[in-house]
Amino acid sequence: MDGVHDLGGLDGFGPVEHATSEPLFDEDWERRAFRLMIGWIAAQNPSGGRFRHSIERMAPEHYLSSPYYEHWLTGAATMAVEAGVTTQDELDRRAGGHFPLSHPDRGVLPDDLTPRTTPRFAVGDEVRVRQWHPPGHTRAPRYVQGRRGTVVRIDGAHSIDDIEAHGGGSVADPVYSVRFTSRELWGEAGADGDVMHVDLFERYLEEPR
Amino acid sequence: MTGAPLDDASLPRDNGELVFEAPWQARALALAVALVDKLDLPWEVFRLRLMAEIAKDPQRPYYESWGAALESMVVDLDLTTPAALDAAAPTERAPL
Amino acid sequence: MTTDHHHPAELAPVEARVAAIESVLVEKGIIDTDALDAIVQHFETNLGPMNGAKVVARAWTDPAYKERLLSDGTAAIKELGFEGPEGEYMVVVENTPKVHNLVVCTLCSCYPWPTLGLPPKWYKAPAYRSRAIREPRKLLAEMGTDIPADVEIRVQDSSAEARYLVLPMRPEGTDDMSEEQLAAIVTRDSMIGVQRL
Predict the structure, then answer these.
(1) A99 touches chain B (CB under 8 A)
(2) ipTM of the assembly?
(3) Domain-by-domain residue ranges, chain C?
(4) Under CATH, domain C49-192 is a member of which superfamily?
(5) B33 pairs with which residues across the strands?
(6) How many Cβ pairs within 8 Å bridge chains B and C?
């Protein structure tokens, strides 16, 4: 989905608030949110994509205005409601107020679920990223869609998240590291001497035209 | 969450369905940590055993080498015997 | 998920929301908080950049190990006993006088847990995720790291399975240091790429 989580290249977020070290959790609720998400994953075994997508589906303003572990809290609670373990009403009641959850999952499976284990492209090949824009989970960031790059590494076939996140099981697809120049991605705002390497599934890629 | 590359032969399957083992992977981790903590051992002790198990079979998934390292640790610490481990029936899956 | 329009207007505090979902999951027997505490403690104590630092120090002192590390990061890192979730497919990228690597996850917060532990707040926040991929040189300068114009900045977006560890250049004047002493000078930020040693 073209969600607000897809942050690469967006303006306006200001300086990085960097610290060289920090505690893992600022507050106790964060540690508990982490703990319950780990427990959910251990017990229910959602795929990584399904878990990530539960967070991507948060209302944009909620996503941007909440601390990181509130994303985990919201994703876990959303998955629990969708699994029938609890309901919005029960959560509101127990929390003593509104418990915002993520928006519904609009992901769809492609017609072709054929696994591919033999890479189609080789190191050195030029590729273009399709204008993919799926309604559900993907690992093709918006900033590379439609852009042209060079394959620099092949990582073998892995389960493509776009399919696994929406109940399609583990479908193998080769993964490539693709090198893009800054100018290709950011146009006149790009810089010579900067390059971006992005890891992309084969289904996102096509021959350049 | 998978990470290792797949080929058709390496995908674990059960009657054509993929088998995931996350609950007991997490359990192996929880047991290792709890045991090390209970015995007042530094984590390094477990890590060294883990290194030895990985060296024996570098291709095995991490949760299997964890399990093997745990077993060797509890045997060497005289907490149980290999025969007792073999004989232990699988327990009911308890919540983690 | 719901289309219920009658939910209470006031947002419950986050602590209350955590307690609410936790109580549901405990009552339904889905989670056991005591057992899970052992796992959280593992993340707090046993995972962290001190692990990655050992990998770097070994690579600096053992050329054959370095070669293995760069050709198969997962296997070489496993040799030191570092493996587990979010470390199943490791790629180690080497900084050189001509190339400086910077690691980001623009889409979420992917990070190599077994070697670096859990990611810091700033790595997961929108400012870093949006800017590292677009204006890395300026961002690094703001963070106190000046990369000369003739050095390529290579930003790795961890968008699929690979998790990245930067192998920083060994600083000058460290020839007499032992592997253990070297590990002590390798920082987390140098293994993400926002700092040079």
Answers:
(1) no
(2) 0.97
(3) 14-45, 49-192
(4) Nitrile hydratase alpha /Thiocyanate hydrolase gamma (3.90.330.10)
(5) none
(6) 72
Q: Does the annotation mark C71 as catalytic?
A: no
Domain parsing of chain A, residue ranges? 1-13+21-105, 126-206
Question: What is the span of the domain harbouring residue B52?
Answer: 28-85
This prediction has a pTM of 0.92
- Give the confidence band of C3 by pLDDT, cuts at 50, 70, 90: low
CB within 8 Å of chain A, chain B residues 40-59: none
Question: What is the CATH architecture assignment of A1-13+21-105?
Answer: Orthogonal Bundle (1.10)
Query: CA-nearest residue of chain C to B64?
Result: C84
For the domain with range A126-206, which CATH number is right: 1.50.10.10, 3.40.50.12710, 3.30.200.20, 2.30.30.50? 2.30.30.50
Beta bridge partners of C101: C154
Place of tokens 């592997």: C179
Is residue C5 scored above 50 in pLDDT?
A: yes
Q: For A128-176, what is each residue's pLDDT tens digit?
A: 999 989 999 999 999 999 999 999 999 999 999 999 999 999 999 999 9
Which chains form contacts with chain A, at 3 or more CB pairs under 8 Å?
B, C
Region A52-81: what's the mean pLDDT?
98
Q: Which of residues 117-176 of A touch B (CB under 8 A)?
A: 117, 155-159, 169-170, 172
- Our CA-based measurement puts residue A154 at a distance from the nearest CA of chain C, in whole angstroms, of 11
